């Protein structure tokens, strides 16, 4: 009579999970499942069709990489992309972004899907079991070389020049867009970050209208996105966007009694009106959020937070340096103007920054 509580005969005890008493014959090796050939293995028509499909996917990758370079070098974004009266620069920017993003996507997707489709339809899919071993002897190295040759033969890359040639073309061209993107990170010495268009007497103007700002326009708690007035004279070919990205400034007015000002910066503000670089010192994202009650500036990219009341000291987040302050004053007409350029490089830290800071300090001293 069986004991249904543990599955053992009556009078027997034991642990069903205990395999110490199991013998090699207890579990039989089921072996490999029967091989089911694909249509491409038994008929030349489907195989040829699959070959053309793989080559087409690699060709799509090549076309995508070419589209990237068309957008990168062929589409020009001239003028102010924020202009209200003329949307041509904005349309050009959208077209360029479409070609850049779509080109990279097609370049990577074509290679990836093409290789997967190649492996699933044309490469051998027979099952096998092979023991791994260390390659130590010359004979074993020769065996390993033979295995590689076998893999190349089975992949069909020698017998299918169409796939081979399109794959080589796609593999060569696909990484080139990333070289172009790395070029946009700027020169290796990063000397352009040392100076901006700000200089003594340059008026502060609103972004994007370009109208000058009077000290009386800046009320307590207000915020302005500011550019140098001399930026409007630059064209796209003369580096308009690059100079704008470096020179953009946030202008705010605080109660002077609530602000901590260093002795060397006492004349850098106008009755509590302060100007700080809008470029985050972490990775260069634009500072865009201002908490009026706490006087905190927040970077939306990685949440670095700067205390405006304490010379934009970092109080939270990955940024390691305060935002550079732009010294300002008022001209004879009551408009806010810059006293000088920034006294330190704007933007994120980089390896040569200490050298640049020392050189700029010498320039300001002279």
UniProtKB/TrEMBL annotation:
One of its GO terms (molecular function) is 2 iron, 2 sulfur cluster binding. Residues 246-337 form the Rieske domain. SUPFAM superfamilies: ISP domain. Its main location: membrane. It is found in: Cell membrane. The chain crosses the membrane at residues 54-75, 95-119. InterPro entries: QcrA_N, Rieske_2Fe-2S, Rieske_2Fe-2S_sf, Rieske_Fe-S_prot. Gene3D superfamilies: Rieske [2Fe-2S] iron-sulphur domain (2.102.10.10). It is a multi-pass membrane protein. One of its GO terms (cellular component) is plasma membrane. Keywords: 2Fe-2S, Cell membrane, Disulfide bond, Electron transport, Iron, Iron-sulfur, Membrane, Metal-binding, Oxidoreductase, Respiratory chain, Transmembrane, Transmembrane helix, Transport. Residues 1-46 are annotated as: Disordered. Iron-sulfur subunit of the cytochrome bc1 complex, an essential component of the respiratory electron transport chain required for ATP synthesis. The bc1 complex catalyzes the oxidation of menaquinol and the reduction of cytochrome c in the respiratory chain. The bc1 complex operates through a Q-cycle mechanism that couples electron transfer to generation of the proton gradient that drives ATP synthesis. Belongs to the Rieske iron-sulfur protein family. This is Cytochrome bc1 complex Rieske iron-sulfur subunit. It comes from Kocuria coralli.
């Amino acid at each position: 009579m069986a004991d249904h509580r543990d599955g053992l005969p009556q009078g027997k005890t034991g642990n069903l999970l205990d395999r110490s008493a199991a013998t090699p014959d207890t579990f039989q090796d089921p072996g490999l499942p029967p091989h089911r050939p694909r249509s491409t293995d038994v008929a030349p028509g489907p195989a040829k069709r699959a070959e053309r499909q793989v080559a087409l996917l690699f060709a799509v990758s090549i076309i995508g990489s070419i589209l990237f370079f068309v957008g990168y070098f062929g589409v020009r974004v001239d003028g102010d992309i924020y202009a209200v009266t003329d949307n041509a620069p904005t349309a050009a920017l959208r077209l360029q972004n479409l070609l850049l993003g779509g080109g990279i996507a097609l370049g990577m997707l074509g290679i990836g899907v093409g290789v997967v489709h190649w492996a699933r339809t044309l490469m051998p899919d027979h099952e096998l079991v092979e023991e791994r071993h260390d390659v130590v002897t010359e004979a074993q190295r020769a065996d390993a070389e033979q295995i590689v040759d076998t893999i190349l033969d089975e992949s069909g890359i020698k017998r299918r020049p169409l796939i081979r040639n399109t794959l080589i073309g796609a593999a060569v061209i696909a990484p080139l867009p990333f070289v172009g993107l790395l070029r946009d990170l700027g020169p290796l010495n990063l000397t352009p970050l040392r100076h901006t268009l700000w200089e003594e007497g340059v008026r502060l103007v609103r972004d994007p209208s370009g109208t000058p700002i009077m000290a009386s326009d800046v009320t307590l708690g207000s915020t302005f996105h500011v550019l140098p007035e001399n930026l409007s004279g630059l064209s796209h070919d003369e580096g308009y966007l690059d100079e704008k990205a470096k020179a953009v400034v946030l202008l705010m007015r605080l109660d002077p009694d609530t602000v901590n000002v260093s002795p060397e910066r006492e004349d850098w503000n106008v009755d509590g009106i302060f100007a700080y670089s809008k470029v985050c010192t972490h990775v260069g994202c634009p500072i865009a959020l201002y908490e009026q009650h706490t006087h905190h500036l927040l970077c939306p990219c990685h949440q670095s937070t700067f205390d405006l009341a304490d010379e934009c000291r970092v109080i939270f987040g990955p940024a390691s340096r305060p935002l550079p302050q732009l010294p300002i004053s008022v001209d004879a007409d009551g408009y806010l103007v810059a006293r000088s350029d920034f006294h330190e490089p704007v933007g994120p830290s980089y390896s040569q920054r200490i050298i640049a800071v020392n050189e700029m300090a010498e320039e300001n001293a002279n």
